[in-house]
Design a protein that fits this description.
Layout: E1 2-5, H1 12-20, E2 23-26, E3 28-31, E4 37-40, E5 50-53, H2 60-76, E6 82-86, H3 105-115, E7 120-124, E8 139-142, H4 145-153, E9 161-165, H5 171-181, E10 186-188, E11 191-193, E12 200-202, E13 213-221, H6 225-236, E14 241-249, H7 255-261, E15 264-270, E16 278-280, H8 283-293
Parallel strand pairs: 1-2, 1-5, 5-6, 6-7, 7-8, 9-10, 9-13, 13-14, 14-15, 15-16
Antiparallel strand pairs: 3-4, 11-12
Helix pairs in contact: 1-8, 4-5
The protein binds ribose-5-phosphate (R5P).
The site of ribose-5-phosphate has 12 residues, from β13 and α6.
Length: 294
């Protein structure tokens, strides 16, 4: 097996190759004067099974097209089977029509990846696992929750803590996190997002957070609005301190500053997207996915 590090692999390719103890080949990637991408694999892959690591953090469209071109380059270099491992899959939140006439972005993206001819697809903590139905092929959604929980255990005391999901959709993930971290209490807020403006509101809830360390667990932190409002509610309910944990730290603009200003003590995320708070790698989760796909 060979690991291929594509244009946006953020070091996950290196960690994965070293975990699997296999060769790593970095693609030769350049941008033409008009902005188009060029990808070449500088070595023969004749007969090899390969895993391409390519995340699709911003600029998402560029990184997506690079992923597709890299799959083609791998087959052209002689690869036998090609797995595409995408630490952060963009466009996952538009997973249905919220308002009539909208495009279902994740469907389009997964269909394009399928059409590239990949043998299999690995994604990490996809916003909604059900979206993989659009891929209609060999694929797996792996989770970095065990590694994130392991990290948080090293900085908090589980018996004085509770885990909070910002909405009911995130509850299963929060529960898994709590169990992995040895935390026996978890709960969720009731968040709604305006379909047009995107503005979020929380319904009033009674959660006994008195004197506790509250860990807000979500798949993505983008503008930070969800965690800022969630932590405000938790401090109002007596929380001693609030931490934020996510797999995908998009952290648009000054999101991280907003979180710290809101009293969030620390933010823990993975390297699916480069960030100042990427403290945990998704490489192990991807390695688990490879085992289940071959
Ligand atoms: C949405 O349902 C996701 O799970 C996250 O809660 C959301 O993307 C967070 O966005 P923001 O940080 O902009 O509030």
């Amino acid at each position: 097996m060979i690991v291929i590090g594509a244009s946006a692999s953020n070091g996950v390719d290196e960690k994965l190759a070293s975990l699997l103890n296999v060769e790593l080949i970095k693609v030769h990637h350049k941008i033409f004067p008009d902005g188009e991408s060029y990808v070449r694999i500088p070595k023969s892959l004749k007969g090899a099974d390969v895993v391409i690591v390519q995340s699709t953090y911003p600029p998402q469209d560029k990184h997506l097209i690079d992923a597709l071109i890299t799959v083609d380059a791998a087959y052209n270099a002689g690869a036998n089977r090609v797995i595409l491992a995408i630490p952060y899959l963009a466009y996952a939140r538009q997973d249905r029509m919220f308002i009539s006439g909208e495009g279902v972005s994740i469907k389009v993206v997964l269909k394009a990846i399928k059409a590239s001819g990949v043998y299999g697809l690995i994604v990490v903590d996809l916003h909604k696992e059900e979206s993989l139905k659009f891929f209609n092929g060999k694929c797996v959604n792996v989770t970095a929750i065990p590694e994130l929980a392991e990290y948080i255990k090293s900085i908090i005391s589980p018996d004085k803590s509770m885990v909070l999901a910002p909405d009911i959709g995130a509850l299963e993930r929060a529960k898994m996190f709590a169990l992995e971290a040895g935390i026996s209490e978890w709960s969720y807020l009731r968040k709604t997002r305006d379909k047009v403006t995107g503005e979020i509101t929380f319904e009033p809830v009674e959660i006994d957070a008195h004197g506790k360390t509250v860990i807000i667990v979500d798949d993505i932190i983008s503008t930070g609005g969800t965690v800022v409002k969630g932590s405000k509610i938790m401090y109002e309910q007596g929380a001693r301190e609030v931490y934020a944990v996510c797999t995908h730290p998009l952290l648009v603009g000054n999101a991280l500053d907003k979180l710290f200003k809101a009293g969030v003590k620390d933010v823990v995320a993975t390297d699916s997207i480069p960030s100042r708070v990427s403290k945990v790698s998704v490489a192990k989760a991807i390695a688990r996915g490879i085992e289940s796909l071959w």
